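User: tokens in, sequence out, please.
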């Protein structure tokens, strides 16, 4: 989870790529990444809810 100071909670390509990399690294360790939430002034975005992960 993190915030976007701009206020727009839309995930950037970097957010998506970083999350996928963390998932790939965590999986062999038995760690599940359930979601990545981005918070902004206008609300929040869930990468899982947006089917990006």
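Assistant: Sequence out:
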């Amino acid at each position: 989870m993190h915030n976007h100071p701009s206020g727009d909670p839309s995930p950037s390509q970097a957010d998506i790529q970083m999350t996928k990399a963390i998932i790939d690294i965590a999986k062999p360790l038995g760690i599940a990444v359930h979601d990545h939430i981005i918070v902004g002034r206008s609300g929040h975005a869930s990468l899982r809810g947006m089917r990006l992960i």
